[in-house]
Amino acid sequence: MTDENIPFLDLVTVHRELQDELVEVLTTALKSAGFIGGLMVQGFEEDFARFCEARFCVGVGSGTDALRFALIAAGVKSGDIVITVPNTFIATTEAISQAGAQPDFVDIDPRTYAMDHEKLREYLERKCRWNTKTGQVIHNATGKPITAVVPVHLYGQMADMDAILDLATQYNFKVVEDACQAQGAEYFSQKDNRWHKAGSMGHAAAFSFYPGKNLGACGEAGAITTNDEQLAHMCRLLRDHGQSKKYFHDIEGYNGRLDAIQAGFLRVKLQHLAKWNEQRREVAERYNKLFAGAEEIVTLPHQPGWARSVYHLYVVQVEDRVGLQKHLSDVGIGTGIHYPVALHLTKAYEGLGFHRGDFPITEKLVAQILSLPMFPGLTFDQQVRVVGEIQKAVSTSTQSR
User: Fold this and answer.
1) Can you spell out the DSSP letters for 146-215?
2) Residues 6+ apart with CB under 8 A from 182
3) Is 363 helix (H, G, I), strand (E, B) or coil?
4) Cross-strand pairs, 259
5) Is the pLDDT of residue 1 over 50?
6) pLDDT in tens, 323-341
7) Does the pLDDT at position 221 exceed 90?
8) What is the C-alpha separation between 194 and 191, in angstroms, rounded?
9) Helices 260-290 and 380-399, axial angle in degrees (round to 10)
10) According to the model, what pLDDT value does residue 400 have?
11) Which DSSP helix (H) or strand (E) runs through 249?
12) How far apart are CA 241 and CA 255, in angstroms?
């Protein structure tokens, strides 16, 4: 084992290994001049729908496009409220706002970091009333209808979907999965007595293929999956200026298309995704074993029995996050924080009127989480060094108090 730098994420090796196939995609596009739409996009959509065990996939320009279009196509409109969690990237709430709705939050489960369905139930029971005329649940304070909930499958692990879907049936709202970090993650449904893939359980789901994702493009890209044919049709209109055919605009849409070259790159990489996800699980299991006995100083990721995580991130909690991150940086080990500011307290949402203390679990979490190096090629020796440096730094910090 050496003291070489350990990156937080390695995006170079995978592209070096797949270089010939990726160059072939580019060459094909250059020879055909098929840069927008066409067989490359269609082929990827068919393959990714099959991978997610969904009927339809609509390729779009980014994960933010995917979530925005999915919400609009699901019927979310101006004046609605859409509920999500405060521990997520701002794209989740941007998509809600850009669909015309107001984002609102429920706190997370302290172990899974995903939406706490009991908190969602409490929100619906205590803050809302039922409108028998419209068949909608109405927010008491604002008078606005709750039309959708966006559970975020965070860090590669799905939210507890059975419970959330049961509430959706009871209160008549749509569930749109934010699966941007969960390509290939699975959930065991007690109701169905089987495993489901991320992107196959809600009314629709949004995926991001930002380069650092488990399935990453070589630029921006995203996709919507759904089992609803009409919703898929609406998303296709929305991504392409509302066109049913060229220059015939059924609705006002957006410029949110997936370009053919990115689709081709993604189709090549998709063939390797199951293997890469399994390698991530192996890396996570090695971390768990290396940290054995250190649970009092480092809180490890929790995977419930109903979840099969794909470990987009391996996130731990420590008390002195600032000190630990600095130590790791000083010894050449890359880390990340996902995310350092709870969304309800970020400057962009000052106008929504939230205060510190509104979502205490998230607020405590964001001060302690640290994402460790995680990628398929991470070696055992590198992990030994990461864990050893963490134990050294945390022990020193504890003794100095």
Assistant:
1) EEEE--B-GGG----HHHHHHHHHHHT-EEEEE-TT-TT-EEEETTTTEEEETTSSSSEEEEE--TTSSS
2) 153, 156, 157, 158, 198, 199, 207, 310, 312
3) helix
4) 36
5) no
6) 999 999 999 999 999 999 9
7) yes
8) 8
9) 60
10) 59
11) strand 248-249
12) 6
**Whether the Cβ atoms of residue 357 and residue 383 lie closer than 8 Å to each other:** no
Q: Which amino acid is at 256?
A: G
Segment 104-111 mean pLDDT: 98
Cβ proximity of 209 and 224 under 8 Å: no
Strand 128-131 and strand 102-105: the pairing is unpaired
Asked if pLDDT for residue 119 goes beyond 90, the answer is yes
What distance in Å separates the CA atoms of residue 233 and residue 236, rounded to the nearest whole number?
5
Q: 275-302 burial, b for 16+ CB within 10 Å, e for fewer? A: ebbebbbebbebbeebbeebeebbbbbe
- Name residues whose C-beta falls within 8 Å of residue 128's C-beta, 6 or more positions apart in sequence: 137, 138, 139, 140, 146, 171
Whether the predicted pLDDT of 238 surpasses 50: yes
* 383 vs 390: CA distance, rounded Å: 11
Structure tokens at 34: 């098929």
Q: What pLDDT, on a 0 to 100 scale, did the predictor assign at position 386?
A: 98
Taking residue 79's Cβ as centre, other Cβ atoms within 10 Å add up to 13
The predicted model gives 113-121 an average pLDDT of 98
pLDDT over threshold 60, residue 2: no
Q: What is the pTM of this model?
A: 0.97
> 43-46 long-range CB contacts below 8 Å, 24 or more apart?
43/263, 43/267, 44/258, 44/263, 44/264, 44/266, 44/267, 44/270, 45/223, 45/263
3 pLDDT above the threshold of 80:
no
Which domains are delineated in the chain? 12-268 (3.40.640.10), 273-399 (3.90.1150.10)
- Per DSSP (E only), the strands in 6-60 are 56-60
241: left (phi over 0), alpha (psi -120 to 50) or beta: left
* Percent share of the chain, pLDDT over 90: 95
- Binning pLDDT at 50, 70 and 90, where does residue 293 land? confident
**Residue 286's pLDDT is what?**
98
Q: For residues 32 and 251, what is the distance between their CA atoms, to the nearest angstrom?
A: 30
Q: What is the mean pLDDT of the chain?
A: 96
- Strand 81-84 to 145-149 pairing: parallel
Cα(305)–Cα(302) distance, rounded to whole angstroms?
Answer: 10
Q: Strand 81-84 vs strand 102-105: parallel, antiparallel, or unpaired?
A: parallel
CA dist 311 and 75 (Å) reads 32
* pLDDT reading at 102 higher than 60: yes
